[in-house]
Amino acid sequence: MTATEFEAIPAVAGAEPRLGTLVMKFGGTSVADPEKIRDVARRLVEARAAGNRVVAVLSAMGHSTDDLVRLAHEVSARPKPRELDMLISVGERISCALAAMAIHDLGAEAISLTGSQAGIVTDTVHGRAKIVDVRARRIHEALDQDRIVLVAGFQGVSTDQDITTLGRGGSDTTAVALAAALGAEVCEIYTDVEGVFTADPRLVPEARKLHAVSYEEMLELAASGAKVLQVRSVEVARNHNVKLHVRSTFSAEEGTWIREEDDRMLEKALISGVTHTREETLYRVEGTTPSRLFAALAEAGVNVDTIVQTSPEIVFSAPADDRDSATDVLDGLDVRWSARDDLGKVSVIGAGMKSHPGVAAKAFATLAEAGIEPEVVTTSPIKISCHIRTDEVETAVAVLHRAFELDAPDAERQHA
Ligand code: ADP
Ligand code: ASP
Ligand code: MG
To answer: How far is the CA of 92 from the centre of ligand 1 (A)?
Structure first.
């Protein structure tokens, strides 16, 4: 059995399209220092001057979210999730307040809002809350007053009135949910690379920028390690038909469009990308049923990825970050279990796979030639994933990227 389960979709009430509403999200590197914040302010003022109603979603500056998480753990070994959310939601507020000041200096009107003030309502799960509603009245009012609206990403207020955060990379989801709720046709995601590439461009310099990717492919790419978009943001985009444009903050180049699949996407390239994660813990469990095991893991908030059952053994993987929670659950269940911490994962993804047999054979042959033996293999209609040793991940990405000719110009897909 193979499962890559995507979470349920938030009920973001769809809105009537309001002509000219533009949602622009800027990631941490894009607002990393005062000069970059002034640059972003300039971009927002230009977008406003071009006639758009501008809503900007900002991430925390640089690595400040990591710094806040570290700070929490310096004070307490196991900080309470509610207090951790109070702390780590602060980074995004700082960016928005500073950007509003920079916009005022440029002679334009702006207002910064926390997620809560912006009407982002979530469930009560701290650290990985889901947006359940967007009450955008205050945003509409500010836009009607001709202001640029800056919304702190990654956070909301729960139905219990506590501050929540949406999981790492969650500002993407704030932006897409707002685009859906405001009826914006496109959500622009500004980041530190020029778009979505055939592999992480920091690892594979010859990776190609993809011009167009379907929602389904982007879900698989994001879920298997292409951290350029949070998985949940792609789900919300797909469900509300929000087109995403992933592009660079530091250039005016066209980036990557994420939208409905069309025939050209299937025809052009067999494979769209190779993704990886360096660390993913693989567990082997005996002496329980899947229903009991996965209910307990879900209860503890462990993000189970791959599941393989070969009776009597259940094998599953989860992010290295969830190791402590998973250990607590397994110790509490009175089962025999073991875990491997020396594995990562490499995946080959492409909608073209559906109509072309032989992709799996080629992937395995390529890995074997490089002396790499997968520990566990899982597939979906458009993905093949192999758990391999962490120290083999870089090589695996490189040889697969080459074998599927992703460094050739044909790997790019034109958006027409
Ligand atoms: P931001 O702070 O703007 O949200 P992230 O760090 O979350 O940016 O995501 C951008 C990073 O994602 C890039 O710097 C890049 O290293 C990484 N990445 C991984 N895989 C891919 C891919 N296939 N295409 C583009 N970027 C990728
Ligand atoms: N600042 C948060 C993080 O680092 C959210 C984001 O950047 O999207 O995960
Ligand atoms: Mg991100």
So the answer is: 19
